[in-house]
């Protein structure tokens, strides 16, 4: 879907449901006002509808804004608790969310950083 480079791109999930009648311009304005972020920074912004089976993403790829919508045919996405602001997801969590899998049940193993020897 989105060519996420390994470094620098954040995935931000708005925790408040949004009206899905909003188009791209409305979501861009929401990123700027409610999330206090720059919608043109190259980060992915994910929005949820009141219905738990729908999501929308906006993403600036350097040449234009991309708007994607997904709804599940069966089941619901697992969303973070509703509160003001947003949360940041890892690429792995985002992949699970898009697949309709409960990303909150996946535990990430700590990775030990190699030490210099010699």
Description:
- By secondary structure, the protein is α+β, with helices and mostly antiparallel strands.
- It contains two helices and five strands.
- It has helices at 24-33, 91-98, and strands spanning 11-14, 44-48, 54-60, 65-71, 86-89.
- A five-stranded mixed β-sheet has the order 4-3-2-1-5.
- A hairpin with a 5-residue loop joins strand 2 and strand 3.
- The radius of gyration is 16 Å and the shape is globular.
- It starts with 10 loop residues before the first strand and ends in a 20-residue tail after the last helix.
- The mean pLDDT is 89.
Please outline the helices and strands.
Blueprint: E1 11-14, H1 24-33, E2 44-48, E3 54-60, E4 65-71, E5 86-89, H2 91-98
Parallel strand pairs: 1-2
Antiparallel strand pairs: 1-5, 2-3, 3-4
Strand order of the largest sheet: 4-3-2-1-5
**Count of runs of 4 or more consecutive helical residues:** 2
How is the biggest beta sheet arranged? 5 strands, mixed
- Average pLDDT reading: 89
Could you give the order of the helices and strands?
EHEEEEH
* Fraction of residues in helix: 10-25%
Radius of gyration: 16 Å
Class from helix and strand fractions: alpha+beta
């Amino acid at each position: 879907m989105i060519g996420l480079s390994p470094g620098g791109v954040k995935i931000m999930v708005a925790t408040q449901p949004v009206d899905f009648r909003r188009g791209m311009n409305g979501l861009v304005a929401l990123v700027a006002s409610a999330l206090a972020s720059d919608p043109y920074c190259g980060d992915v912004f994910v929005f949820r509808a009141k219905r738990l089976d729908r999501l929308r993403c906006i993403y600036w790829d350097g040449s234009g804004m991309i708007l994607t919508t997904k709804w599940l045919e069966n089941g619901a996405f697992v969303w973070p608790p509703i509160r003001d602001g947003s949360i940041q997801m890892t690429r792995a969590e985002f992949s699970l969310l898009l697949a309709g899998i409960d990303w909150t049940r996946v535990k990430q193993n700590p990775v030990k950083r190699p030490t210099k020897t010699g």
